């Protein structure tokens, strides 16, 4: 492929994300926020009427009945889409990605990357064989403060990492929402559409990705205790894990969707031989930097003292809060820049989560479930 | 005017906001965030090259050398803009607004509304004579938690208001930034472009508007002590005020651009005969509700217990932080909805700051400066 | 006087503070906390039975029917008290102090120092003529973080002070508690026992003292707007003030006892040409240090980096919270050390609020009321 | 024993706690804070000179060279001590307790209760055979907000407990302090004086005790991963644990003394089927109550809505912060009240941690170490 993308917004298509979806609108806002792309086509639902209505409410130029049709037709059009956004339940992530990858259309996919580890491996191979940009929306790494946290670790400011505590706790599934017609709840608790894990796949993987992103270290092994607290639920809605990182650091990771009164409490704390770091998604513009024996420093996004990379992820002056959309948009910003580069014959520069992060995520899910089935025995987190 | 706006994004033009402007990009993101409008034309700078470059970087379809030209030509085109965004320094707010108002083009203008109280009065008259939507971006009232605060006051949940404390303090002008080539600082400290007030006009008016919005009460009189702490600065960079509200409540309002270490610390606290309210712009998704003798309640945006109006101003589930852009976009969302209504022959419904808020703001500036010149004597805040 | 105090706890007597008093028990705990003094005698109530019962419940060795009797008898005893604690309503502060001062007995008195400015002047004269230690329990200056704040100002770390914001807001008098038999409320709202001011005397003076303590600057003039919100109340329950400090800095001071939902929210913020400081009494072990352009530093009591003076005011390792009692005890600790010094023929070293702070407090009350009576006209805060 | 304790402060002796000790002074302040007891005798150090100097600096009436001598002599005196305070390193807790228990003297002991599980069992037997009060200073359960947390659980306000997260993290041993002559560090890292665990015994047991106190549930089994991060250190300085409670709830417990930048960060979060609770020791006067679907409530100590038990543990009005000493003093307050009861022939009422809590603590240490030695295998936490 080689499109002329120089003097225009990129054209995007979306699969899924129709009415009733939370994440569809998030992708739209995030993809378009920097004025670098516009969604013009969609296969927004498997239900034709919903697909049509959804497309119309977004003023899309073209609405398709199926993603396959969209992939084929858009690939042929001179004004076809430059990239596709995958905003479906988990089980469709891989088939949809494959359809567009095979047409040479760039992909921005929701996570987890696939339904199974096998699919994930196949997806890696597909992307490696292609010349397309593949970005996975582990959106929380898009926050400027998270970028700064990684930067401080990279600069050696916290010394050698010893201890990591990652939490991602919510309460929205503390009752059997899946039995009340809640679409979001219903696919997430259904193994056929969600995969072998519930909370571990839905939010635990964000924690795992955040941990490996910030520390630059791989989880070497884990001991996981998964629970389904809500009666009749087939997948886990809570998990507690002990972690051992590749450098000998130790850690805890917990995810839960039954933690009463918690909204979307993702946080990470990293402690090294020199200093500690603390970040909370719900107050995302602040990063605590805790040097031993010195006053804790409250680092704030887009202040002059932040790293260039962190500042590049900020759009407003310090004190003008940026949030979930803006972080999500940062993943798009970097992916779109890479699509422009690739289409102009330049080398992509990355910065966003890739197919390899997707593979780690599927490995994490697989190993966590395996460990829990063995009564929380230690399981190595590597792909044999 | 009567355009068919039913099945498309609205078309917007922008005056000002070219390269180097902070607020230009804010307007673009905010105007487009909900997928209901697209900026397609601009007169983005009085410097022709900067205008052209700015327009190109935004992929605008049409770039004009002057706002007058843009007003005339766009009014004539069948595919002309539906509304104009005014993102210039203060002294241009009124002339630009007048040019577009006279062409029957809807206006979204930055604040303060004009350079002088006289202009503000004229602007009110112009809007009243026209059939256009005029929205003023007192963006902080766009926050869902601020909407909830107003709702609780309206519902009588805090009883009769007795005491109000409003702060808007920053530090970015604590040194003579205007002498270092900082464009933002240079026009804001220049009476010709900024008007008779510095911090009082730039941020104090946001405080005044927020106070009257949330309490539903007018400031009856004020006693203001304005200071220019930075040597050589012509306009105030700090102000402390005593307030008396129309119902007998008392208050404090302080604004400052020399408060070392403060970013964009706008906050409001309201105390009534039954309960108190507290909101901080830098943690915007939280509203504290303090009923006497009961536990303080931490109200969080988009939770089920929030008012319909507040929820309508939220886009993400609770715990997924929304920030400055999203609040700004709420002003646009409401204004755009009204533009659609007016163009379809329906009655506008409001909800966003109007030309009357603009008049109050200019009155506030005028009276605060007058009081300070009289050694903080009490001055009534009404337009004789 | 010259007692041998070397190898024993000091002996204290208390006037007031009997059953039903809040502050009596505070004085007992604070005076005894460091094991350097013991309360052994008291004239704890004007009601003989309550006096007796109160003394017994504290296991006091001697209970007196009147403070005059106590002053005379204790002065004569070889094992008489070394100092007296005054924990009565305001109107008794001065007469009781005088009685003990005249016997050469050291005094620790509650604030405000007297009922009127005249009494305060007389008290200053009395103390100056005597050789006794006089300490006034402006206890909030006893907090280690407040000491650190003063230290940073003294070291020039914040530069020249420009702006000060002091708040002391509560809600416990938001209803007519004085009509419900609440003893605390009843004397505080009674001009005969409380003096010419309500909230201004009770808590506003703490704010004034804290401001002058931390900044090392005197308030030059003030413009005060006092209000009695609760019907039938004779004294103010709310006040808003503009301040001008002797160096040209500007400020705000507000005190309120009708701020619904507020407990005991005393705070101070100081902004200079280099940095800002922020401290909240309700989270007393933290001091925010806000250097322009650098990360905010969270200073924590008893960390190694704190000043010697601040560390001397801490008793527990960082992270083991100290509170109201411990700060109060710091006033006693310094006063007791000075009593030991004076009794050993050494020079007192101070550090605690003195009779001169008491005079400033009475001046503040007097001038605030005067300003408010003149519709918040500027009044100089100096003793002509 | 049957002493007349009615009209006097109780007389206490102390073993350990001499100069250089942190906890000695804490016990003194806590024991004496409510004016119900006075320390008059001590065997404050095994070094005779330090013992003597320490006693003198506290103005003690009697100083002993050994605890055995003190136990024997005080038991014989008509004015002997009523209870003994044990403030030694761990290895002396049991022998000292035994010496005084055998003399029928009441005991307030530091934790962990003993050096080994065997000693703990023997101590239980000793106390059961005696008629003395035995209190263990798991001081963190003395906080009013912790009492409220337990109360809410007991009242069913959070429903059935599902998930618990307990943390106790510090940084003071992140370097080899034991090699720098730091006495506190040196005994705590020495198996002979500290026992088989380091951080798990020193602070992990506080976490365990807090968890069982608040939830009213026993830990059924645990999987523990203990680490000694500092080179050459024999005992753990960090631990991560998975927990399973007796009712099927799951949990995490982590303790660390190498968490850079953390002071004394003990916290507990409990999530039930109806609501959650959150408490942080470093902001101890606040308890968050998180009912699903309702605003989070900020419960504050000594507000009218708190439970009677919680209010009984508060001494100051809401907003006047109480801290570490006051919580510690609550353990003493309850224990002293029980000593008075027992001496008056009444039944003790408890409320403070007992010898059975001490046994649980030793069991926790023993099982955590056992689990870790088995590579974090699940180990039941029961005494076979």
Automatic annotation (TrEMBL), chains A, B, C, D:
<dbReference type="InterPro" id="IPR036291">
    <property type="entry name" value="NAD(P)-bd_dom_sf"/>
</dbReference>
<dbReference type="InterPro" id="IPR000683">
    <property type="entry name" value="Gfo/Idh/MocA-like_OxRdtase_N"/>
</dbReference>
<feature type="domain" description="Gfo/Idh/MocA-like oxidoreductase N-terminal">
    <location>
        <begin position="11"/>
        <end position="137"/>
    </location>
</feature>
<dbReference type="InterPro" id="IPR051317">
    <property type="entry name" value="Gfo/Idh/MocA_oxidoreduct"/>
</dbReference>
<dbReference type="Pfam" id="PF01408">
    <property type="entry name" value="GFO_IDH_MocA"/>
</dbReference>
<dbReference type="GO" id="GO:0000166">
    <property type="term" value="F:nucleotide binding"/>
</dbReference>
<protein>
    <submittedName>
        <fullName>Oxidoreductase</fullName>
    </submittedName>
</protein>
<feature type="domain" description="GFO/IDH/MocA-like oxidoreductase">
    <location>
        <begin position="146"/>
        <end position="277"/>
    </location>
</feature>
<dbReference type="InterPro" id="IPR055170">
    <property type="entry name" value="GFO_IDH_MocA-like_dom"/>
</dbReference>
<dbReference type="Pfam" id="PF22725">
    <property type="entry name" value="GFO_IDH_MocA_C3"/>
</dbReference>
């Amino acid at each position: 492929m080689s499109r002329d993308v120089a003097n225009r917004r990129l054209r995007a298509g979306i699969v899924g994300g129709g009415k009733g979806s939370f994440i569809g609108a998030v992708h739209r806002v995030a993809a378009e926020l920097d004025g670098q792309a516009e969604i013009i086509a969609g296969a927004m639902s498997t239900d034709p009427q919903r697909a049509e209505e959804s497309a119309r409410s977004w003023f899309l130029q073209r609405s398709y009945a199926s993603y396959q049709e969209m992939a084929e037709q858009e690939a042929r059009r001179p004004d076809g889409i430059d990239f596709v956004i995958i905003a479906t339940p988990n089980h469709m992530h891989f088939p949809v990605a494959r359809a567009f990858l095979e047409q040479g259309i760039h992909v921005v996919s929701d996570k987890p990357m696939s339904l199974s580890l096998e699919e994930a491996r196949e997806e890696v191979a597909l992307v490696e064989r292609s010349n397309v940009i593949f970005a996975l929306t582990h959106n929380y790494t898009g926050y400027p403060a998270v970028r700064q946290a990684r930067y401080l670790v990279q600069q050696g400011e916290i010394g050698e990492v010893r201890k990591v505590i990652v939490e991602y706790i919510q309460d929205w599934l503390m009752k059997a929402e899946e039995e009340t017609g809640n679409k979001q709840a219903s696919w997430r608790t259904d193994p056929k559409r969600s995969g072998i894990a519930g909370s571990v796949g839905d939010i635990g993987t964000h924690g795992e990705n955040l941990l490996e992103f910030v520390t630059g270290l791989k989880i070497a092994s884990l001991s996981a205790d998964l629970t389904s607290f809500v009666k009749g639920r087939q997948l886990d809605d809570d998990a507690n894990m002990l972690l051992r990182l590749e450098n000998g650091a130790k850690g805890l990771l917990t995810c839960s969707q039954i933690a009463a009164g918690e909204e979307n409490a993702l946080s990470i704390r990293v402690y090294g031989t020199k200093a500690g770091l603390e970040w909370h998604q719900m107050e995302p513009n602040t990063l605590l930097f805790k040097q031993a024996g010195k006053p804790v420093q409250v680092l704030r996004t887009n202040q002059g003292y932040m790293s260039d990379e962190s500042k590049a992820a900020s759009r407003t002056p310090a004190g003008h809060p940026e949030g979930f959309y803006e972080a999500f948009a940062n993943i798009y910003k970097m992916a779109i820049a890479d699509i422009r580069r690739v289409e102009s014959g330049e080398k992509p520069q990355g910065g966003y989560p890739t197919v390899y992060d997707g593979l780690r995520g599927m490995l994490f899910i697989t190993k966590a479930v395996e460990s829990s089935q063995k009564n929380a025995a230690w399981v190595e987190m590597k792909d044999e």
